[in-house]
Amino acid sequence: MPKKYRIAIFSCASLKNSDFKLSNCPKEFFGLAKIIELRTFYWPNWSDSGVEQGLDWVFVRIKKNSAEKLDFIKKIRKNSKHLIKMENSDFCNNKTGFKSKNWIKNIRFDAFVPDCPLSAYEFFGFLHRVLIDKKPDGENPVCYECQLAGHECLLKKGKICFGPITRGGCKAFCLQHGRACWGCRGLLEDAQVKNLTVKLKKENYSQSQIKKHLTTMSFSNKSD
């Protein structure tokens, strides 16, 4: 029997809203059950993980920093083949009190997955792409998912919406509920912020109004 990939989630926060158990794996990704072992560890019980024995893919979910957590993340990095950060945008981090990423900047992460929120579908989809499809993780904006779902475009109604510049994966959750995209999953790598700013100005929004919204999302330096 082939050796299974050892997957682990180290979380400082509850994952009750995102239940990442193999029993909850979407049917499209059932093939993962044959090739992975998945366990979740909650702070302060990270030391129960046996990380010293080596792990293949590790996801770290952090809310607030501490020297103790940083030391353990360094240990995870040393004993893991791939380290993935589950992170929110600056806006979500500011809401939770995790106001600076500087404390962790010296840790090398191989990738990150947006966590605002991260669904089971997106989590297992990521693993399926890297372990079975052997393809890099692609990106689409929230705007793309909004159009696929047939939701009404708020930009066409003259409202501020960050869907065109925000990483997708949330199934356009806010748009489903009649709200504009706030960009909580972070900027796309090639986000056309200036183009969106020009469009909003044509809808009679002032530079100060646009910058105020972008500053909320820590995007303001991209609009000048």
Please summarize what this structure is:
With 224 residues, the protein is of the alpha/beta class. The protein is built from seven helices and five strands, in the order E-E-E-H-E-H-E-H-H-H-H-H. It has a five-stranded parallel sheet, with helices on one face.
Task: Outline the structure in words.
The protein folds into 2 domains: about 5-135, NADH:ubiquinone oxidoreductase-like, 20kDa subunit (Rossmann fold, 3-Layer(aba) Sandwich), CATH 3.40.50.700; about 140-220, no CATH class. The chain is α/β, with parallel strands linked by helices and about 220 residues long. The chain is globular and about 60 Å long. It has 7 helices and 5 strands; from the N terminus they run βββαβαβααααα. It is about 30% helix and about 15% strand. About 35% of the residues are buried. It has a 5-stranded parallel sheet, covered by helices on one side.
List the helices and strands and how they pair.
Blueprint: E1 5-11, E2 36-42, E3 55-61, H1 67-78, E4 80-87, H2 90-96, E5 111-114, H3 120-133, H4 142-149, H5 173-176, H6 193-202, H7 207-216
Parallel strand pairs: 1-2, 1-3, 3-4, 4-5
Attribute tags:
single chain, 224 residues, alpha/beta, Rossmann fold, five-stranded parallel β-sheet, 5 strands
